[in-house]
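Suppose you are handed only these lines of text.
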Amino acid sequence: MRKYLFFIILSLFALTGCDSMQKYDTQFYDVFDTVSSLSVYAKNEEEAKQYQKAVHERLLELHRLCDPYNGYDGINNIKAINEAKGAELEISDDLHNMIEYGINAHKKTDGAINIALGATLEIWHRYRSEALEGKEAAIPTKEELESTRALDNISAVELTKNGVRITKSGTALDLGATAKGYAADEALKLLKEMGCDSALINLGGNVGCYSGSAHNKPWKVGVQDALDPDGLSDVIEISDGFVVSSGNYQRFYMYNGKKMHHIIDPETLMPAEGMSGTTVVCGSGADGDMLSTALFILPKEKGIKLAEEYGAQRIYLTDADGRLEKYPAVTEEN
Ligand code: ADP
Ligand code: MG
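From them, the structure of the protein bound to adenosine-5'-diphosphate can be written out as follows.
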């Protein structure tokens, strides 16, 4: 009898081990103006649903905080900060972290990443929306853009211990270049805290994953082909880490045969030229998001050096003509 019992316990262990885990997939359509997907390993659907619900709530919370267009009751978000007319607003730790990260990124990128670019981005947003609504495509005049240059001033963003204040009237924050990466970090952190064995999240090109190896095979992440977004430039096998992409194919309209996209070079105040797609493989979602955007704007060598300083493991750059370069360079054999 004892032997028999031992056998049953062993079988139970085998059943509840890694192999009994199943992958559950879901998508979210209401966060960060993009399609997001989440894959979690769980013992059963009930457990998977708990993970999905918790991640969705956390993403919604971060989405609302970063929203520059809509206000929400009881939340001091980016819209509220931009409209505070010089008053200091108390903000959550999340917003504090993100703004602090942005101020630091401005220094590290010599201003290529500027979270105080909101006034200029708003002009481009208006022109893009009108073109996408079917009006005749146009671009802002030089004077229109130059009128906001003085407002794109990161020194007007004053962080205090628990709050923030914008000291220049008209200066506006926009966290679009880094928010999804921070959110991907936070989603994976939450899943780990909840005891989820293995997960992959994709927030509109900000892919983060962990413990692919717990199931004896790494996650596979496709790198979108910048010139043919339905195709792939490469497939990366990764167990733990982030694969983050920025592209001129995501938010754009056509004007005189040119793609007027959403990554703005703070020097020219025009859509950054030179790249059509950038991808970074690294250990942090926030860094990956910031770097993929910075690589789009900075001169190539400077961008690569910066990414290396941040410990990026791989970089994919597709230039405007569709030429793909990988760093470190790899040959077919390795
Ligand atoms: P996506 O949001 O499509 O993933 P990115 O991560 O590259 O793309 O971020 C682009 C967004 O960042 C823009 O939509 C805008 O909100 C903001 N942005 C554009 N140019 C800059 C810039 N030079 N510095 C900081 N933020 C920027
Ligand atoms: Mg980015």
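What can we learn from it? The radius of gyration is 22 Å. The CA atoms of residues 16 and 43 lie 8 Å apart.
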